[in-house]
Structures are given as C-alpha cells and as structure tokens.
From TrEMBL:
It comes from the Bacteria. The lineage of its organism: Bacteria, Pseudomonadati, Pseudomonadota, Alphaproteobacteria, Rhodobacterales. This is ABC transporter ATP-binding protein YadG. One of its GO terms (molecular function) is ATP binding. The gene is yadG. Keywords: ATP-binding, Nucleotide-binding, Transport. InterPro entries: AAA+_ATPase (IPR003593), ABC_transporter-like_ATP-bd (IPR003439), ABC_transporter-like_CS (IPR017871), ABC_transporter_ATP-binding (IPR050763), P-loop_NTPase (IPR027417).
C-alpha cells in the first residue's frame, strides 16, 4: 500500500535541552491501523501533536498525503482527524451542532447527509439533539470521533481513545475503529491497553524516551519475539530444579509445584520430549502439563527492559 504519512528524522527539543523526540523515522501506510505503544512520557502524544501541527518540530520533515505539514499546512491538516485524550466539549451544546461546527471549521460545505452518516456509524443519531452534558463518558468519546471525522479526513489519530472507558464500551470502540478502517480511513492510535493493540492493529510501533524502538507487522512481531512455555505441574512441590534438568530454559515456579520450560516453536526440535523423559528419570511425578504463548504485553515489557539496560 502507498505511504500516506511520511516522517523523516523528526526531532522535538524543549528549553533546557530535554528531547521529547529523537530522530523518529516512520512510514504509515494508507488504510492500515498502526498502534503506538509506550509508557507515560515516551513521546507518543508529542509525536501526534507534531504531525497535527499543534507542536512545532525542532527539525525533520513530515508529509501527509504528500503535503508538507509546515510548507503546506492547510492541505496537510485537512487530511487529518484528531481525537485527543481529553474530553473538551461544550457541555450545553447539542451533539449535531457540535459535529456540524467542526465540519465548518475546516471550510467544508454544509452537508446534513454526511453528518447523519457519521452519527449513525457511531450510534449517535438518536442522541443528535441531546446536550453533551447529558451523555455518558463513552458517548462523549464517540462525539469526539464524530467531530474528527466531520471533514472527511483520510488519516485519523486516536490518542488513548478508550482511556477511562469500561471493558464493554472499549470493545464497542474496537468495532468502530474496524469499521472506519473498512471505509478507507488510515488510523494511528496510542494506547496503554496492550490488548487493544493486539486486537485491532495491523502494525505495532514501540516508542520509549522519544525513540522508535521498532515498527513491525503485529503477527510477524509475535511470531519472531513471542515465546512458548510448557508448564509441567508436579504432584509434590520441590525446592530446586533437579541437576539433570538444570538449564537456562527451565525454571521452578514460586510455589515449587511446576517446572516452566521456555522453547522456540520455530526450531526443528522443541526439546519437549527430551524434557519429559528427564522429568520421569529424575523421579518426579507429573500431575498435568499446559502450554502458553507469550502475549504482546510480554513482548512490550521485554523490549522496554532491553532499552533500559
């Protein structure tokens, strides 16, 4: 797919020398969902704010749909929809008027059919005449998305879109994002909920201390860095791993009732058969065995540990 957002050596420094972004390079493909993962202060919001023109870059270049965000700001910004973390809505305004006003800010002609389509897509049409203050937190977030979509953007930035939203509404939001992607919108979201990225993203980006540690296809990343573990549950607890089983890949659980074996699923031989034979030879009695695949959260934590080392 063609690149719709191109970021080259983007840097942002503040007075005093703090670098919020340290030479970020990133190409975002048209029609994809890219999830940016990072802890607080990693640079996620600064990156989005800079692309959207809210923050001025110290150096580097960003284009959106071929339009430079500095030299051709209006054209670039017209292609972007932004849903901020904060719910900053006029409490006494009505939903339809709020979305209509946002469309007008971008100089788009009045089109009630477009507004109705957006509100229906976000399950807000029956709330069109409600005041913002009458809505739940989840509904207010939907209004923020409706405002961001009101001028028909090609790229949508969602900065922590499900922060403070309960699990059920979060899953509803995932369906909304999937529907937006199906309609051709490119979506970049930042999130603290790693299961959110695992559920809906096509690619994962990990950012820490203003640097992009990696950007990779989600499935490829999990296949490359994901680990699989075999848990051998014992009938009786033990205090240490028997000498014949000692290996960097074998550890004892905290309660002493399980041996945890980490292995590579892509290897020609997993070593499971050999391990189980050694367990039997050592006189240990198996109660059960179970396997688990490492999650995106495990990978994320490991990456941050490597970066901190």
């Amino acid at each position: 797919m063609p690149t719709i957002v191109d970021i080259q050596n983007l840097r942002k420094s503040y007075a005093g020398g703090f670098e919020a972004l340290k030479g970020v390079n990133l190409e975002i493909e048209q029609g994809e969902i890219l999830a940016l993962l990072g802890s607080n202060g990693a640079g996620k919001t600064t990156l989005i704010s800079t692309i959207c023109g809210i923050t001025t870059a110290t150096s580097g270049k960003v284009t959106v749909g071929g339009h430079d965000i500095k030299d051709d700001f209006r054209a670039a910004r017209s292609m972007i929809g932004l849903v901020p973390q904060e719910i900053n809505l006029e409490p006494f305004e009505r939903v339809l008027n709020t979305v209509r006003f946002s469309r007008g800010l971008f100089g788009r002609p009045a089109d009630e059919a477009v507004l109705e389509k957006i509100l229906r897509q976000l399950s807000l049409w029956d709330k069109k005449d409600s005041q913002i203050r009458e809505l739940s937190g989840g509904m207010k977030r939907r209004v923020l998305i409706a405002k961001a979509l009101s001028h028909d953007p090609k790229v949508l930035f969602l900065d922590e879109p499900t922060a403070g939203v309960d699990v059920e509404l979060r899953k509803d939001m995932w369906e909304i994002v999937a529907g937006l992607k199906a309609s051709g919108v490119t979506i970049i979201l930042t999130t603290h909920y790693i299961e959110e990225a695992e559920a809906i993203a096509d690619r994962i980006g990990v950012i820490a201390k203003g640097e992009l540690l990696l950007v990779e296809e989600k499935d490829a990343l999990m296949a490359r860095m994901g680990k699989k573990q075999l848990e051998v549950q014992l009938t009786e607890p033990i205090t240490e791993v028997p000498l014949t089983l000692q290996s960097p890949d074998v550890e004892l659980s905290a309660d002493g009732r399980s041996l945890i074996y980490t292995y590579d699923t892509n290897a020609e031989r997993t070593g499971i058969t050999k391990l189980l034979s050694k367990v039997a030879e050592s006189g240990l009695v198996l109660q059960d065995v179970a396997t688990r695949q490492s999650s995106l959260e495990d990978i994320f934590v490991d990456l941050l540990k490597e970066d901190a080392a």
